[in-house]
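Summary for the steering committee. One of the milestones for this cycle was to obtain a three-dimensional model of the protein with adenosine-5'-diphosphate bound, which we needed before selecting residues for the alanine scan. The sequence and ligand used are listed below.
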Amino acid sequence: MAKHTILKKTFGYSEFRGNQGAIIDHILDGNDALVIMPTGGGKSLCYQIPALINEGLAIIVSPLIALMNDQVAALQQLDVNAATLHSNISDTETRQIFADIQEGKLKLLYVSPEKLMSDGFLKYLVNQKISLFGIDEAHCVSIWGNDFRPEYVKLSALRNTFSAVPIIALTATADHATQQDILRQLAIPNAKTFLSSFERKNITTRAKSGQKRMEQIENFVKIHPNESGIVYCLSRKSTEKVAESLEAKGFQAAAYHAGLDPSTRRRVQDDFQNDTVKIVCATIAFGMGIDKPNIRWVIHYNMPKNIEGYYQEIGRAGRDGDPAETLLFSSWGDFLMLKKFIDESPNKDFKTVQLAKLDRMWQFATAASCRTNMVLNYFGEFVNNNCGHCDNCLHPPTFIDGTVFSQMALSGIIRTREQVGINLLIDILRASYKQEIRMKGYDQLKTYGVGRNISFQHWQHYITQMINQGIIRIDYTDHSKLKTTPLSSPVLKKEVAIKLTEFVSQKEQKEREKKIKKEVNFSNIDSALVARLKKWRTHLARTQRVPPYVIFNDRTINFIASAKPSTSDDLIAIDGIGPVKLEKYGEAVIEIVTSK
Ligand code: ADP
Ligand code: ZN
């Protein structure tokens, strides 16, 4: 069968995305490939379709059991004969798998690298008809990647043992050094590299300063009811704190971190996958093994330590291609804490690199221009367009003349002889009655109270920008006190003007978000119908013991609830419904749509 027929008939999709078609052709011609695609880009189809077209068995290597189980469950929903072999598979199941291979019935087998490279198994495969090898998370083979796994290194034997079987390596890691290393480690020097853009157009990227984060998160969750989301925190304690405050406000949330016992961790992960828990507050340990396509938002309660980590974490949102929201909080506190971690490292080179990465992260968090541009350029995909889906593109910040504010701040720094940090400086400018101020005589300074008409939050927002523009410097070697720089004096002498972005209050922000939320919704969606469909899906998923989205993902549910199909022809036109699912669920769906 041709690849388009399988796309439609088996997967229910009408068009290939990005490079998918070209990659499939390349594999069908018997070649090796390295596929670099961001999370949610659609890597799986690149090997699944050739596996279904070619004769024989496709072997897919993956490091994560949860991911393998998910993929197999999804394929079985489509009546594709797929299975997985790993430590949790029973003997009976294993026997069935080998019987199916023997009869030539099995099309895809997912295995861990250890299992594949175990002596007996590889020898066994030599005598079978193998259609292709898919190496998922291929960056694990390289020490340059961010998740090196020694057991992956042995995979180099594949090319020598199976000289005629195509190998397709797939990863969402962009870095050039890692790409070269994958080709070398897997002994596939002639593999063609297919590089997709890392831009995730369906993800809206926002960053805000981290004042009153909890209140901001509650407001955010309120306008995203019933949506799955992750709040990433830096410490275990804050995951629990955030989960508790959300629960106290009546939202369903759970904490997840490496300190919890394995059964609790498992339960949280399962509940999240099955949509019974909507919000997980987690350390970055959470998410690696999660393939959930309908994560609608990701919030960073604290700033991550680099852009790689940040981008990977927000990338878990919106894998189904539907609109997703991300929100990054950052503050000086976050920056200093991360810096402290890095400073503790004894390795000087490591420190230098990590500090530079942290600086870029901070620039990103406080940028006033297109954030997508910043990320893509960081990964070496050089662009300079305004993306249209970050906060700075959607609502270009308003600039104000900040020269006088800058002079006030600088004069405060100079008159205190560069002995105050950001908070104390603001207190002085705002004429606070703090004891420390009176004791040190700061209330006698000429600058005391000159900025009292400006709120504390406004001042924080402005001074952060002054630091980013280099007219003020933070001295980390001296308790983070503020100091002047060579760029300060021209400002004080009024030789240059300083532009600052205006602070957006929480209330204004809330209004904006409500408006955006409306913009991205399906036009005439029937939300009562969505609820009925989801209830039916949950019930079905429980009986079949699979995650709900392998039955229909949210995108498909939304399509149904806006198109309201009443015949099989209507149904088959919907993205995500092919003949197999039509046969399985068509009648039930039509009944739900047509009943009141
Ligand atoms: P990745 O492994 O690259 O993160 P997946 O292979 O899991 O991404 O695909 C992400 C989602 O996109 C899945 O729900 C998948 O079914 C869907 N998808 C993939 N290709 C297409 C396509 N051509 N049209 C519509 N949906 C697609
Ligand atoms: Zn942008």
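Key point for the committee: The first strand starts at residue 33 and ends at 36.
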